[in-house]
Amino acid sequence: MKLLKPSLLFITILLFSFNTVVDHVYICDSKSAKKYHYKKDCRGLNACKAKVVKVTLSEANESKRTLCGWED
User: More exposed terminus of the chain, fewer Cβ within 10 Å: N or C?
Assistant: First the structure.
């Protein structure tokens, strides 16, 4: 039982260390664009004819954008 607690603690710490926090995303700065992207080089941005802009995730959500299908 004594070995179980340190092992469980280690596994918990390990799992939480892989949790990444996304605070900025990329959007196509076009009125018709409806998605946001985690990576600037996402293939979902290939068709963007406007400028690709880095914004906060909150800003993307406020403008009613949803996550790109290539990244979900």
Answer: N
